[in-house]
Fold each of these.
Amino acid sequence: MFASYMLHTWIMASILAMATGILGYFVILWRSVFAAHALPLAAFPGAAAAPLLGISPLWGLFFFSGLGVLFLRLFSLLGRKDIAMGLLLTTFLALGGLLLSMGQEYSAAVFSLLFGEILGISGRSFLPMVLIALLVLLLVLANFRSLLLQSVSPALAAAAGISRSRLDWLVLALLALVTAGALPIVGTLLTFTLLVSPAASAQRLCSHPFWSLVLSVFLAETMTWLSIAMAFWTNWPPGFFVGTLGAVLFLLSHLTARFRSGLRPSADTAGRPGLSSDPA
Amino acid sequence: MSSPTSSSAMEEQNAPHLLEVAGLQVQIGGRSVLEELDFHLDTGQLCALIGENGAGKTTLLRAILGLQPVRQGRIRIHGKPASEERGQMGYVPQKIAFDPNLPIRTRDLVELGLRGSHFGFRGFFGNTSAAVAAALAAVDGEGFADQRIGRLSGGQQQRAVIAHALVRRPRLLLLDEPLANLDFRSTNTLVQMLGRLVREEKITVLVTAHDMNPLLPFLDRLVYLAHGRAAVGDVHTVVQDAVLSRLYGYPVTVLHHQGRILVLPEDPRRGMETACPGHTETDHGETGS
């Protein structure tokens, strides 16, 4: 399992898990789960188009996930973004399908784009993912307090002189980068799981802002490592384990939090928000 | 359009006022929200900003904070433009309601007030506990310091945000509708707390409210907003039939009962008794000015 040909897999998966664990933390806080779901789909045609143009898939992914970010921002300015974005995504997916059908190895390529090929990672995709992960780590930690205050209350953040649109662009741009980097490794569908499940679980389990970020990374790593190990032993696709473990983790964290608050009834039932009628 | 008392005080500029608003005009979407607003506050005063919905109370607070572009006029803090003195101000927005799942405890929110906008890695684990503890103590928040903010009651969330605003030791504290949605007991607790901040910490507090009554025990000044104009002064000079009728452009009556104040529109029945047809017109003529 730790043979040399598996070494790339372990390292890449660890780096990817760190990046998604950190970024996912703010995806959850900002209620940007929709964007985390949308961008991998938007990037899909990029990977499909790359072999036709004879370029590295990464460039195609960057281009289309960047395009996805622009559309997300554009539609959110228009107000209701769900309809337009939903249509755009299926269009992108259809475009990806068309581009794939023009290529040679149809079914294998589709499978790896949707579910990743984590066990067959080459050293080529190594450097971009490392750079992306470093960028995520630096930019998120450097803006940690502003991002946190913005997620607690936009009004308080504005009063503290924090620019909302700058942070919006930052999170979306990093999301696009991570998506492009992650897609060849875990695929379109599972990038979403890695972004959402560990962070959401960590925030349920831990009340401290910084330690729940650390926990989010730890859970993302654990989830990824377990998936690879189980895929290696069973010879089943790793994507199956990533997806399933993601859902199980989230469920477990909810049950744990519920159980703990049951032990201390005063903590949860005493304070119920009295003003919480509007969800914004 | 300003006040019975403040205009003379405006002229003499010996020491700069803590807050000075002069000739302020604000338009939002081409509609004039504030026109020619003048008032000032000094250190250790509690001032209520009273007005109906849409009178421009929040707009005025946002203008003072530099979040709302100003068409004309100036806002100064200690004689310097308020936009440069944002660090001197603490702000408590209206309708606070936090997501119950935010992984943030009360003390974390307070601490973000200290360094929320800091860029960079400085003091990730720095020791800020003394300032945070002091701010929590000022709002009696020690009891819920380690609970998630989203799980607190409405009154507790409000006190948490006030601690967040106080932790940088501002000279001017702006609160937007802090008394809305509070029960009687929480209202009283909050008013006592604001009074203590004003009297003991010498912080100047500007509070917007629909109802001035809960604030009366500590109220030093009143800015009464209607139709973009304001009457400014202490309670007794502003809250009078003639002053408020002129401000509203409609006859109003001020009732006093056991130290409470009630501002009511002119009793419509009075118009009916005197002249039944077209009574609104005669109402204006009789008591309007």
Amino acid sequence: MNENMNKPNDDDIVFAASGLTKTFGRSEKAIRAVDDVSFAMRRGEIITVVGESGSGKSTLARMILRLLPITSGTMALNGTDVTRLRGRGLQEYWRQVQAVFQDPFSAFNQFFSVRRLLHRSGKLLRHADVDLDSRMRAALEQVGMHPAEVLDKYPHELSGGQRQRIMIARALMMEPKLLIADEATSMLDASLRATILNVLFDLRADADLSVLFITHDIGQACYLSDRVLVMQHGKLVENGPTEDVIFNPKHDYTQRLLADVPRLHDVG
Amino acid sequence: MKLSRFTSRFYVALGIVFLVAFFGTLGPLLFTGKDLTTVVGGLYDAPSGKAWLGTDNLGHDVFTYLMYGTRSSLIVGVISGLIATFIGVVVGTVAGYVGGAVEETLMAATNIMLAIPQIVVLVLISVALDSRSVTSVAIVIAVTSWPWTARAVRAQASSVRTREHLDIARLSGANTVSIIVFDVLPYMLSYVVMVFVLQISIAILSEAALSLLGLGPSEGTSLGLMLHWALAWESVRNSAWWAFVPPTIMLTMVAFGFLLLQSSLDEVFNPRLRRDSGRKRRKRIASARTAAEAAEAATTSGSGA
């Protein structure tokens, strides 16, 4: 992989990771779940990370979110090092970097109403001068829900799709600069998935939101992203514009992934 | 919670526990009007209209002593259960949630406590105390009986820890205390309730064991102390059964009631353990049989046509 692909030389970079490594276990039994991963994201860019199960995609996401300690390497948000943030600094980081996870059932605390869930996240905004209530309502409307109907409901009163949309609203409420979506749409039905993806597209245009999609669905990667990163055994094996990676894959792992995509009609 | 979730076992257990609690708390006021200093007869008088369960070695009414003894056993059980559950839950939750070196340290301490036989520690601490009130006996039992709770709760907490809602809470900037209180503990609440009930029953039995050895509360009475005096004054050889049989039955009832309550709560909180009642099972078998007969009838009539 050549160097200038990893480090675009412009000021537009929102997030940059270099040499990110995560090792589980000690000494000779250690497993490198994420191995020396470097990439950069521009403002408003949508990047997809693809790879099979166990390739380290989700570990990478959790490292970027600072939910998992980083073994080595550095990350920077808007040019500031965020690898070792703690306390207030970390809260400020989470205001700008948010996430949606795969499973809308286990992501909810079943004892919290939607309002309480959103209010809790809203505490990150307490230093910013915003009206939390209107922000909450706006975010729910963005994902196509009626605030009055859902705010006082508990998770068991909502369907899977509704829950996932509330999770997305929770992340968007913070108006983040970077959104990590870890298989966020894999549990939604097709029409809902399109709605959600379009919401994210609009936000990219309106609010300069950068999105890091993590998926095993190459079709989805093709549909929405500007660039694709391919991961295998924790290593980044391919990193390039979507067209290049999909139509002209260099690494044989990518070629194999693409060959496994079921075809409804041959594009020949 | 819907009432239909409770099994008949639960109601039986609750009934026993309430009966015992009623006997221990209100009994002395309702039935005899005597107290622990009232002397009603001589050494081991047989049961009579004056003393329903006879008298003990000092001529006290055994029935009155039984009620006061039940009361102090229950007090010891509840106080000790509360303290032991509290210590166990705090240690277990912190170890399970925080993990790493904190977990190793806390669990090492817990395992060391588990390796030392509880009764030895109980006896040593009790001997070291000059005067023992009901409360201090309860505290001594509590500080030796939390380790099992801590271990079990740690296992629960580390399984809750992997749930995604904790990640969401962290991403919302919630601090560790808030996450433990609002995101981890509620998920273990049913378990903690069961542990508490079990701890009560363990504490009551431990108190009886200590008292039997003469290390029980130094004022008042308890079920174990009654047994202790009955042994010391050779009631068995004097065939004064009323001195040792009633406290034994009472102790068995209390411990059995709480154990049954704990295991029936397990069924309530964990529906997979629930068994059909006999009637339901018969009904299910009967309906399966009629369905099979109907199907058979349909095929024979079908082939006949």
